[in-house]
Amino acid sequence: MKLKGKKALITSGNSGIGLATARLFISEGAEVAITGRDQQTLEEAVAELGSKAHGYRADVTVAEDRKKLFADLAKDPGATETPIWKRGPRANATQEESTKLSDFFSSTVPLGRWGKPEDLAKAVLFLASDDSSYINAVELMVDGGLTGAPFGAPILRG
């Protein structure tokens, strides 16, 4: 177990990449504190994750929510050792626009597909575990080869 005895804060841990990361961290022995803006999905995620998960309704872009979150975390489950922050706005596209964009984007990625939440969660697990103890000053691109091998993309293969 790579994270036995560790505690992690996973923002937006009630869905998507955050939830996949919380599942993986718990399976590797961690106790997690997850946040979410929607109380119902937060409660559902905590119920799914079990006793090793603690849910906090918070929007980390709001200063007052962050203050309350950190005050609550100081009490339960205690100090975290592997904070993970999620960034980025959500697109306001129609389903058709979203599908078109997804298909185009996938064709520009050398692996030919979008990354799954579990793909990113595994990279996060590596960085949060002692396996990465000698990693320093590196940007780990988890992008299907888009950054390192852009000419291998399906759209450019002919």
Please tally the β strands and state the result. Answer: 3
As laid out across the biggest beta sheet, the strand order is: 1-2-3
Name of the level-1 CATH class? Alpha Beta
Q: Indicate the low-confidence ranges by residue numbers.
A: 82-91
Ends: how far apart? 44 Å
As a percent range, the share of strand residues is: 5-15%
Please state the CA-atom Rg, rounded to the nearest Å: 17 Å
Helix content: 25-40%
Q: Please state the structural category.
A: mainly alpha
Question: What number of structural domains do the residues give?
Answer: 1
CATH names the topology as Rossmann fold
Overall geometry: globular
The helix/strand order is EHEHEHHH
List keywords for this structure.
single chain, 158 residues, mainly alpha, Rossmann fold, 3-stranded parallel sheet, 39% helix, 9% strand
Structure, explained:
The structure is a single chain. The protein is mainly α. The protein has a single domain, classed as 3-Layer(aba) Sandwich (Rossmann fold). The chain is 39% helix and 9% strand. The chain has five helices and three strands. The chain has a three-stranded parallel β-sheet with strand order 1-2-3, sandwiched between helices. Helix 1 (16-27) links the parallel strand 1 (7-10) and strand 2. Helix 1 packs across helix 5. The longest helix is centred in the middle third of the chain and has 14 residues, at 95-108. It is globular and about 55 Å long.
